[in-house]
Amino acid sequence: MAQALLIIDFQNDFTAGGALAVPEGDEIAGPVSRLSHHFDFIAATRDWHPPDHASFDTQGGPWPVHCVQGTHGADFHPAMKDVEVDAVVDVGKGRDDEGYSGFEKSDLAQILHDNGVDEVYVCGLATDYCVRASAIDACREGFDVIVVEDAVRAVEVTPGDSERAFADMREAGVQIATSEEVLAGAGAT
Ligand SMILES: [Zn+2]
Q1: Catalytic-residue membership of 93
Q2: Residue 188 covered by a domain
């Protein structure tokens, strides 16, 4: 069976200068790049919204307008240029799709199964939203799931959100490891 790297929403709008910049979001570039060389199969999600997405503050939602389909903000972060992505999965495409989880209304589970994947290593943005939702859904889909803690960053709308997200993920059965541990093949803790 195979391992896959799942890179969540590493996009311009979630990094420095973006519409919904995650603090230190750019800093995952190093670990994501190093991890990418370690995996035969890499899937990457994109937050991919219509201009009137229900999550936007212009529509009464909680977030500024971000990751509108086809815009620069929705493009992958420049560091992704060096990452050989096998499958791009877009989520949040419908006006009312929450789009936090890469598995929501997407083919992601099928793509992973079709490639013989049973173990999914998760990195990307943001820990307390899309990483959390995707990792928990990956467990529900029956995958062994490891979140790479130095290759994720949190929004932290409320202080402690990151810690709570890690607690929620552990409770769902997610393991946590550092990129060093993953690259050394030591497995998760
Ligand atoms: Zn979004």
Answers
A1: yes
A2: no
Laid out side by side, the sheet with 87-91 consists of 87-91, 41-47, 2-8, 117-125, 144-153, 175-177
Does residue 57 carry a catalytic annotation?
A: no
90 is catalytic: no
Q: What is the CATH number of the domain that holds 7?
A: 3.40.50.850
What span, in angstroms and rounded, lies between the C-alpha atoms of 150 and 27?
A: 9
Assess if residue 54 is contained within a domain: yes
Contacts of 63 (CB under 8 A, 6+ apart): 20, 55, 56, 57
Q: Which of 9, 26, 90, 150 is catalytic?
A: 9
User: Quick check: is 57 in a domain?
Assistant: yes
Q: Is residue 136 assigned to a domain?
A: yes
What is the length of the chain? Answer: 189
- pLDDT (0 to 100) of residue 186: 55
In angstroms and rounded to an integer, the radius of gyration of the C-alpha atoms of the chain is: 15
What residues contact residue 159 under an 8 Å CB cut-off, 6+ apart?
Answer: none
Give this prediction's pTM: 0.97
Regions of the chain short of the pLDDT cut 70? 186-189
Q: Which of 123, 128, 130, 137 is catalytic?
A: 130
Q: Which domain holds residue 179?
A: 2-183
Please tell me what DSSP assigns to residue 82.
Answer: G
Catalytic choice (75, 86, 93, 168): 93
Domain count of the fold of the chain: 1
